[in-house]
C-alpha cells in the first residue's frame, strides 16, 4: 500500500494538514494573469515560489508557463522588496516586453508588509514603466484562502485597475469563469458565440496554456482577454459569474465600481447547470437559443438516458475546488449518481454546503477548510466505499490502494493529458465527462464480471 | 567535434547577448557567460557562480527550502517531514521529484506519499506559529509513530521568529524515543537551492549521523553521497554494487532509511555523486570519523565502469578487482550492442545541458558515448568549484548571501574517529593517480570554445537555440515546452521525463534509447505543416480554369 499509514478511524486534527486538498494563493493568481493577453505574471517574493508555481502549472498543462520573480534574498526580506521590484521592472520591460505585468504577492512579501501600490507608484514616477505599459497587483498571501482565492483576487485586481464606466451602457455581457481549464473557457465562449450575443470573457487562458506546436515559441501566445475588454467590462449590461468562490468576487467588484449587475451561477457542468447558463444568457440578451445548442443538449441527454443503468445509484466521492465540486455534484445529479463525500481544503463560505446539499441531498458528507484534506478524504472513503472517485492526480494513490476507479478532474492533473483540450463544462463538455465516467464504470464492470456474464453489448 | 563547437563564434555570441541587457545586468552576466579554455593543470577561466539572480529574470532556480526538503531529505522514506508554513511549499514538494523508494517490507514505514504541513493561517503569522507546530507534531506522533521527525521552515517562519529548533528540542523531550530536528531552510536564504543543501547536510550530520554504531554486515562497506534515486537510479547502482560483492551501507538519500543514515559513520568510504549538494557531508564525515571520500559518476557506462574500478582499487583487494572486471565485462557487452547501433544515428549531433549542480557535467559523458557533442552547458545552482574544480576553493569569496548559512566547525570524534587510510596509504593512493577529497569540475572536461553559462535564463536559452541550433536541449520542467514549441526535443534531467533509470549500465542503455527517440523519431518534425513554407497556392486544380 502506498498510503499504508492512513487509518480508517478519523481522529480530529487541529494543527496538522496531511495531503492537502488545496494549494496556496499565488499559483491561482499566476494562472489568472496568464488569461490576459500580453500579460506577464510576476511573483513578488523569493524565487522558489515562482519556480514551484511555474513547475506546477507546467506539469499540469505541458505548455510553457512564463512568469518572473522579485528573487528576494535575506537582505530584501529584512529591508523590504521595493528595490527588487524596481530592478525587476527594469529588467522585465527591457527583456520581455509585456503590455501588462501582473504582480501577485507571497507570504514573504506580505509578512514583511511590502506596499505594492506605493512601489508601483514609485516605479511609474521613476519612469520604470514605459508608456502604454501597465503594472497591476493583487494581494495573495499564502496564509489565507487557497489557489482559488488567489485566482479570484487576481481577476478582481484586473477589474480594479482596468474596468471603467463611461456612463454609456453597452449590450455586452461579461463572463467570468472560475479556476477552470482552457478547454472549459473555450467551451463557455462557444456557448455564448452560438447564441450570437455580444460578450467578453476574462480571464481566458484558452490558446495560452494549450497552444499549438508549430515550430515557434511565443512568449505571449495569441489567446487571453485583452486589456480593452476588461476596461469595457465596466459598461456592460450584465456580468455572469461562473462559480461563487473563483469568479464572484471580481463580478461583485465590477458591480460596486461600475454598477454592472451580477448573476452568480454554478459552473456549467452537466445539463441543468448548463441550462442555467443558457437561460441566463438568453433572457439577458433577448435572443433565442439556436438549434445548434439544442442539438448539443439533446445529445448529452440522449447518452445520459441511454446509459442511465450504469450511472443510476452509483456512488461517488469527490475532492477538489469548491466551484468545480458544485458543478460536478450537479452533473452527478443529472446522471442519477449518489454523492457520498465532498471535500475541499478551500474554505468556500456557508453557501457552499447548502448548495451541495440542495443538489446531492442531505445524506452527503461535506468537509471544507482547514484539515479537510486528502488524508481525511481517504479516511472517509475507507469508511464508506464509493463506486467512483473524482479528483486530481493525487487521488490515484487512494484509487490504487482501494482499487476504486478514478475520473481525473480538477487541479493539478500531472499524469494525463486531455483536460487542456476536452472540457467538462457545457453540453459538449458534459458529454466528454460522461464518456469518461461511463468508461471508468464499464471498464470496472468488464474487469470484475464472471466469465459467463461478460457482456459483449453494453 | 571542434567544428561543431566552433560553428558559432562564442565570443561574438556572448557580446551580442549582453547588448540587450540593462548595464547593471550586463556587467553581471558578462562574468557568468564564459568561453571555455583549458590550460595546464586544468586551468580554466573564472566564472561567477552562486551569485544572486537579478530580479525580474526568468530563472530556472528555486529556493533553499526546495534544496533542503525537496532534494536532500525528500528521498528518505522514514523520517516524517513536516513543513512549517503556509500550505504551498508542502504541496509543491509532494512527490514531484519522483524519488523512488523500496521499503523493506509491506508494513515498513514509508511517509513519502504524505505531504504534511502546519498550513499556517493569518492569525499564526501575527501571533506566532510555534504552538501550532507543537500540536502538529503531537498529531503526527499519534497517527504515524515515527522514529524521526524533520521540521522544515518556510519564508514567513523565519520572519515571524518561530524557532523550529527550540520546538524540536521541546518535543524531543516530550517524546524521548523520537529524534526530532529542525531545518532553517527559509526560501529567502542564499541565492538558490544550494543554500538548502548545505542546511540539510549540517543538520543530518549533527543530529542523525553517528547515533547508531551498528555496522551493516558485509565486506567493502561504503556510502554513496548525493544520489537521490530519481527514476530508480539508486536501484541500478545497488544492483551493480551487489554483483561486485561490495556492501552499500547507505545512500544519501535515494532509497534510504533513518537507520542507514544514523549508522553511516561505520562505513569505510564515502563516494560522492552530486558534489554540489552533498560535499559538505563528505568533508565533515572525513574530519569527524576519518572516512575518506572521492568523486564518482555512475552516469554513463564508461563512467560507471571507471567508478566501480575506482572503488575496488580503493579497497585494494585483488579478488574484488577481479569480480568488478567480470561485472564490467558482462554489462558492457550488453551496453555496446545498443550503443553502437544508436551511435550511428546520433554521431555529431549537438546538445546543450543546463541543469543542477552535477548533472550538466555527468550527462555530457553519456551523450558523448553516442557521439553527441555538448556545445554549451551550465549549472542552475552550482558554485565555482563545481565548474573550475576544488582547486579554486581557497579563492572563493564568501559573500553576504552565503554567510547566512552556518559553516559547522568539526573536530575528530574522540571515540569514533578512525582514519580508514593512513598518511602513507594516502600518499600511495594519490601517487597512483587517485584523487581523494577532490573534484576536478566540469570545465576542465569541456572542450575549448564551448560555452559555459551559470544560472542560464530564458532570454539566453532562446539566444542559444537561435544561434547554435542544437539537436537536443537538456534542462528542467520549466524550460521543457519553451524548447519543444520550436519543434526541438528537450530532455528533462531533473525528473527524466518520468523515465529511468539512467544511471549505471542499464540506465545508459535506457538513456541511449531515449535520446535516439528524441532526436530521430521524426515526430518533432511534424511541427512544420507542409504548407507553412509556401502559404500562397502556386498552382490550382483544373476546375478553376
Quick synopsis:
Chain A is α/β, with parallel strands linked by helices and 458 residues long.
Descriptive tags:
heterodimer; A: alpha/beta; Rossmann fold; 3 domains; five-stranded parallel beta sheet; 18 helices; 13% strand; globular; B: 545 residues; alpha/beta; four-stranded parallel beta sheet; 43% helix
Structural class of chain A: alpha/beta
Q: And the CATH topology of the domain at 64-207 in chain B?
A: Rossmann fold
Radius of gyration of chain B: 24 Å
Q: How does the major sheet of chain B shape up? A: 6 strands, mixed
- The structural domain count of chain A equals 3
How much helicity do the residues of chain B have?
40-55%
Radius of gyration of chain A: 22 Å
The number of helical runs of chain A is 18
Number of strands of chain B: 14
* Strand fraction of chain B: 5-15%
Share of β-strand residues of chain A: 5-15%
Shape of chain A: globular
Biggest β-sheet description of chain A = 5 strands, parallel
**Quaternary status of these chains?**
heterodimer
Notes on the protein architecture:
- The complex is a heterodimer of chains A (458) and B (545).
- With 458 residues, chain A is α/β, with parallel strands linked by helices.
- Chain A has three domains: 25-162, Nitrogenase molybdenum iron protein domain (Rossmann fold, 3-Layer(aba) Sandwich), CATH 3.40.50; 173-293, Rossmann fold (3-Layer(aba) Sandwich), CATH 3.40.50.1980; 305-452, 3-Layer(aba) Sandwich (Rossmann fold).
- Chain A has helices at residues 25-34, 47-61, 74-79, 82-95, 107-111, 116-125, 147-162, 182-194, 227-232, 248-258, 270-285, 291-306, 308-311, 322-334, 350-360, 374-383, 395-402, 426-448, and strands at 17-18, 39-44, 68-69, 100-105, 134-138, 173-177, 199-201, 238-242, 262-265, 315-319, 338-344, 365-368, 388-391, 406-408.
- In chain A, helix 10 (248-258) links the parallel strand 8 (238-242) and strand 9.
- Chain B has a domain at 64-207: Rossmann fold (3-Layer(aba) Sandwich).
- Chain B contains 22 helices and 14 strands.
- Chain B has helices at 2-5, 10-19, 23-32, 64-73, 87-92, 122-127, 130-144, 155-160, 164-174, 193-207, 233-243, 258-262, 275-289, 301-315, 318-346, 359-369, 384-388, 400-403, 423-431, 458-468, 477-484, 504-520; strands at 33-35, 79-84, 116-117, 148-153, 179-183, 221-227, 247-253, 270-272, 293-295, 350-354, 373-378, 451-453, 472-475, 490-492.
- In chain B, the strands form three sheets. Chain B has a six-stranded mixed sheet, sandwiched between helices. Chain B has a four-stranded parallel sheet with strand order 3-2-4-5, sandwiched between helices.
- The termini of chain B are far apart.
- The mean pLDDT of chain B is 96.
- Classes of the chains: A alpha/beta (458), B alpha/beta (545).
- At the A-B interface, strand 1, helix 2, strand 3, helix 3 and helix 4 of A face helix 4, helix 5, strand 3, helix 6 and helix 7 of B.
- Strand 1 (17-18) of chain A pairs antiparallel with strand 3 (116-117) of chain B.
Amino acid at each position: 500500500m502506498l498510503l499504508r499509514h492512513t487509518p480508517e478511524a478519523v481522529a480530529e486534527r487541529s494543527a496538522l494538514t496531511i495531503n492537502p486538498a488545496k494549494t496556496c494563493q499565488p499559483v491561482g493568481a499566476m494562472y489568472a494573469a496568464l488569461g490576459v493577453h500580453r500579460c506577464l505574471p510576476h511573483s513578488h517574493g523569493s524565487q522558489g515560489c515562482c519556480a514551484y508555481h511555474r513547475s506546477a502549472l507546467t506539469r499540469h498543462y505541458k505548455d510553457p508557463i512564463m512568469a518572473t520573480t522579485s528573487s528576494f534574498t535575506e537582505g530584501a526580506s529584512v529591508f523590504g522588496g521595493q528595490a527588487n521590484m524596481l530592478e525587476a521592472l527594469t529588467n522585465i520591460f527591457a527583456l520581455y516586453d509585456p503590455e501588462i505585468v501582473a504582480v501577485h504577492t507571497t507570504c514573504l512579501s506580505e509578512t514583511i508588509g511590502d506596499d505594492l501600490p506605493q512601489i508601483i507608484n514609485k516605479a511609474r514616477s521613476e519612469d520604470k514603466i514605459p508608456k502604454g505599459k501597465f503594472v497591476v497587483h493583487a494581494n495573495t498571501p499564502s496564509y489565507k484562502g487557497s489557489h482559488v482565492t488567489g485566482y479570484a483576487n487576481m481577476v478582481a485586481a484586473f477589474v480594479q485597475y482596468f474596468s471603467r464606466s463611461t456612463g454609456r451602457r453597452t449590450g455586452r455581457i461579461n463572463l467570468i469563469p472560475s479556476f477552470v481549464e482552457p478547454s472549459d473557457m473555450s467551451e463557455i465562449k462557444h456557448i455564448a458565440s452560438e447564441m450570437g450575443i455580444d460578450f467578453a470573457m476574462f480571464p481566458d487562458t484558452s490558446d495560452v496554456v494549450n497552444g499549438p506546436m508549430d515550430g515557434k515559441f511565443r512568449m505571449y501566445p495569441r489567446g487571453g482577454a485583452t486589456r480593452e475588454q476588461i476596461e469595457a467590462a465596466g459598461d456592460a449590461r450584465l456580468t455572469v459569474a461562473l462559480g461563487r468562490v473563483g469568479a464572484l468576487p471580481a463580478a461583485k467588484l465590477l458591480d460596486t465600481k461600475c454598477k454592472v449587475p451580477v448573476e452568480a451561477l454554478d459552473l456549467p457542468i452537466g445539463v441543468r447547470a448548463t441550462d442555467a447558463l443558457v437561460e441566463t444568457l438568453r433572457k439577458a440578451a433577448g435572443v433565442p437559443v439556436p438549434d445548434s445548442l439544442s442539438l448539443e443538449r439533446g445529445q448529452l441527454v440522449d447518452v445520459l438516458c441511454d446509459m442511465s443503468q450504469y450511472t443510476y445509484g452509483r456512488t461517488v466521492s469527490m475532492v477538489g475546488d469548491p466551484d468545480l465540486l458544485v458543478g460536478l455534484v450537479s452533473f452527478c445529479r443529472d446522471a442519477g449518481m449518489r454523492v457520498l463525500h465532498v471535500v475541499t481544503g478551500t474554505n468556500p463560505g456557508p453557501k457552499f454546503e447548502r448548495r451541495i446539499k440542495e443538489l446531492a441531498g442531505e445524506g452527503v458528507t461535506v468537509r471544507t477548510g482547514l484539515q479537510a484534506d486528502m488524508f481525511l478524504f481517504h479516511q472517509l472513503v475507507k469508511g464508506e466505499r464509493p463506486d467512483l472517485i473524482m479528483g486530481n492526480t493525487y487521488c490515484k494513490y487512494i484509487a490504487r490502494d482501494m482499487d476504486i476507479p478514478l475520473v481525473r478532474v480538477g487541479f493539478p492533473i500531472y499524469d494525463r493529458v486531455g483536460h487542456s483540450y476536452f472540457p467538462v463544462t457545457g453540453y459538449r463538455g458534459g458529454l466528454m465527462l460522461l464518456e469518461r465516467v461511463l468508461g471508468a464504470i464499464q471498464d470496472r464492470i468488464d474487469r470484475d464480471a464472471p466469465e459467463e456474464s461478460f457482456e459483449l453489448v453494453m | 567535434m571542434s567544428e561543431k563547437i566552433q560553428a558559432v563564434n562564442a565570443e561574438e555570441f556572448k557580446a551580442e547577448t549582453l547588448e540587450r541587457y540593462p548595464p547593471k545586468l550586463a556587467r553581471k552576466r558578462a562574468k557568468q557567460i564564459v568561453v571555455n579554455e583549458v590550460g595546464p593543470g586544468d586551468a580554466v577561466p573564472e566564472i561567477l557562480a552562486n551569485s544572486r539572480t537579478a530580479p525580474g529574470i526568468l530563472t530556472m532556480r528555486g529556493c533553499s527550502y526546495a534544496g533542503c526538503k525537496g532534494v536532500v531529505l525528500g528521498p528518505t522514506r522514514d523520517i516524517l517531514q513536516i513543513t512549517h508554513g503556509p500550505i504551498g511549499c508542502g504541496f509543491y514538494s509532494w512527490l514531484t521529484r519522483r524519488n523512488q523508494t523500496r521499503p523493506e517490507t509491506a508494513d515498513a514505514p514509508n511517509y513519502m506519499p504524505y505531504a504534511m504541513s502546519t498550513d499556517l493561517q493569518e492569525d499564526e503569522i501575527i501571533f506566532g506559529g510555534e504552538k501550532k507546530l507543537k500540536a502538529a507534531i503531537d498529531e503526527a506522533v499519534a497517527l504515524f509513530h515515527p522514529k524521526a521527525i524533520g521540521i522544515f521552515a518556510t519564508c514567513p517562519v523565519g520572519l515571524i521568529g518561530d524557532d523550529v529548533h527550540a520546538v524540536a528540542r521541546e518535543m524531543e523531550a516530550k517524546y524521548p524515543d523520537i529524534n526530532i530536528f529542525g531545518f532553517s531552510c527559509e526560501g529567502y536564504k542564499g541565492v538558490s537551492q544550494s543554500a538548502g543543501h548545505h542546511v540539510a547536510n549540517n543538520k543530518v550530520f549533527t543530529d542523525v549521523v553517528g547515533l547508531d554504531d551498528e555496522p551493516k554486515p558485509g565486506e567493502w562497506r561504503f556510502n554513496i553521497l548525493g544520489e537521490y534515486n530519481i527514476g530508480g537510479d539508486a536501484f541500478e547502482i545497488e544492483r551493480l554494487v551487489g554483483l561486485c560483492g561490495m556492501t552499500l551501507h547507505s545512500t544519501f538519500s535515494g532509497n534510504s532509511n533513518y537507520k542507514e543514515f544514523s549508522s553511516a559513520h561505520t562505513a569505510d568510504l564515502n563516494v560522492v555523486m552530486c558534489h554540489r549538494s552533498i560535499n559538505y557531508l563528505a568533508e565533515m564525515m572525513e574530519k569527524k570519523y576519518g572516512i575518506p571520500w572521492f568523486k564518482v559518476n555512475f552516469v554513463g557506462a564508461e563512467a560507471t565502469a571507471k567508478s566501480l574500478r575506482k572503488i575496488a582499487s580503493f579497497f585494494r583487494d585483488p579478488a574484488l578487482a577481479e569480480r568488478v572486471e567480470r561485472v564490467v565485462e558482462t554489462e558492457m557487452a550488453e551496453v555496446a550492442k545498443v550503443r553502437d547501433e544508436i551511435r550511428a544515428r546520433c554521431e555529431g549531433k549537438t546538445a546543450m545541458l543546463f541543469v543542477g549542480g552535477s548533472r550538466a557535467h555527468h550527462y555530457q559523458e553519456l551523450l558523448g558515448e553516442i557521439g553527441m557533442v555538448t556545445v554549451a552547458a551550465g549549472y542552475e545552482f552550482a558554485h565555482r568549484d563545481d565548474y573550475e574544480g576544488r582547486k579554486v576553493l581557497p579563492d572563493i569569496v564568501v559573500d553576504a548571501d552565503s554567510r547566512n548559512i552556518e559553516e559547522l566547525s568539526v573536530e575528530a570524534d574522540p571515540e569514533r574517529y578512525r582514519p580508514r587510510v593512513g598518511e602513507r596509504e594516502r600518499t600511495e593512493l594519490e601517487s597512483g593517480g587517485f584523487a581523494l577529497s577532490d573534484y576536478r569540475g566540469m570545465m576542465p572536461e569541456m572542450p575549448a570554445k564551448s560555452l559555459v553559462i551559470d544560472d542560464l535564463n530564458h532570454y539566453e536559452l532562446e539566444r542559444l537555440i537561435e544561434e547554435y541550433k542544437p539537436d537536443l536541449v537538456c534542462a528542467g520542467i520549466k524550460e521543457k515546452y519553451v524548447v519543444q514549441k520550436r519543434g526541438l526535443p528537450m530532455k528533462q534531467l531533473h525528473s527524466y521525463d518520468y523515465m529511468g533509470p539512467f544511471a549505471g549500465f542499464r540506465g545508459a542503455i535506457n538513456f541511449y534509447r531515449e535520446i535516439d527517440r528524441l532526436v530521430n523519431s521524426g515526430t518533432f518534425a511534424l511541427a512544420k505543416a507542409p504548407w507553412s513554407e509556401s502559404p500562397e497556392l502556386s498552382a490550382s486544380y483544373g476546375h478553376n480554369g
